[in-house]
Amino acid sequence: MKRIIQNLLLMVQFLTRIPVNLNLPCEKEDFKRGAIFLPVVGFIIGAIQWGIYELFIRILPLEPTIVIILLAGIIVTGALHLDGVGDTCDGFFAFKGNDRIIEIMKDSRIGSYACISVIFDLLFKYALFSSIAPSFPIGIIVVPIISRFTTVFIITIGKNAKKTGSGNLFVENVGKLQLFISFLLTTGILILMMNAIHVIILLFAGVVFTAIFNEFSKSKIGGITGDILGANNELVEILTLILIAVILR
Questions:
Q1: Helix or strand or coil: residue 4?
Q2: 196 lies in a domain?
Q3: What would the DSSP string read from start to end of 26-93?
Q4: d(C-alpha 188, C-alpha 71), whole Å
Q5: In 140-170, which positions are buried (b, 16+ CB within 10 angstroms) versus exposed (e)?
Q6: Most exposed residue of 32, 214, 227, 239, measured as fewest CB within 10 angstroms of its CB?
Q7: What tens digit of pLDDT does each residue of 185-241 get?
Q8: Which of 110, 112, 96 is nearest to 220 (CA)?
């Protein structure tokens, strides 16, 4: 039981800026076991954003409140996933060979495509959260849970595009058992918050999109990297928000 809690805390420590000032075991096996908790990490991030929304919507108009929850998400995650989508777009749209794409993705400098992708990512989230939050505020929690589950899915089906990198702690390390346990956790949490049919629709859409994105990444660089995990997370969040907005109409 102690090791399970440590693996959960390791995921919080690794994927967020939430202060977990503990010296935790961080062998590859710990990341493998900890992967089941990615949707729980999504729940924690979403719950923080939801709490901030419920606090500020009482004293501020909707629009600045949405800006604050977006900023809160960036602070809590350290912009980890936004950085991933930016680096991925810089690499994928460079129209270079596989090795050159990976080199561009590793470059700490921001290119035009990264800048554009981050701007549109935040614009989509701003517009969609503004649309759904007044009638379905719990959706603020639902979205990061689903996106983190699809991360577990892609690291289960994907393969490494390079020999080293943060993504290698998960990719080709996490198996079907971890995916299944993560699925049970995800559905268990989501069914407590929304209609079961809607849960199935959102999870199915996220998984299908992720499978397609995995194949696209494989065609570009032969596999996936940590940046691609971040990009997939962001894109699935936007897709989930769009579907929730459609459901609520």
A1: helix
A2: yes
A3: --HHHHHHHGGGHHHHHHHHHHHHHHHHHHHTTTS-HHHHHHHHHHHHHHHHTTHHHHHHHHHHHHHT
A4: 28
A5: bbbbbbbbbbbbbbbbbbbebbbeebbbbbb
A6: 32
A7: 999 999 999 999 999 999 999 999 999 999 999 988 889 999 999 999 999 999 999
A8: 96
Is 146 part of any domain? yes
Residue 18 lies in a domain: no
Backbone region of residue 231 per phi and psi (left: phi > 0; alpha: psi in -120 to 50; beta: other values): alpha
Please enumerate in sequence order all residues whose Cβ is within 8 A of that of 221, keeping only pairs 6 or more positions apart, or say none: 91, 98, 101, 102, 161
Q: What is the mean pLDDT of residues 8-17?
A: 94
> How many structural domains does the chain have?
1
CA distance 61 to 69: 13
In a domain, 62, yes or no: yes
Range of the domain at 58: 37-248
Q: How far, in Å, CA of 151 to CA of 221, rounded? A: 18
| pLDDT tens by residue, 97-128 | 566 787 777 767 788 889 999 999 999 999 99
Residues in the chain: 249
Q: Which of 72, 47, 67, 45 is nearest to 57 (CA)?
A: 67
Find all residues with CB under 8 Å of 202, minimum gap 6, and list them. Answer: 142, 146, 190, 240, 243, 244
* pLDDT, tens only, 29-62: 999 999 999 999 999 999 999 999 999 999 999 9
The yes-or-no verdict on residue 153 having pLDDT over 90 is yes
Count other C-beta atoms under 10 Å from residue 27's C-beta: 10
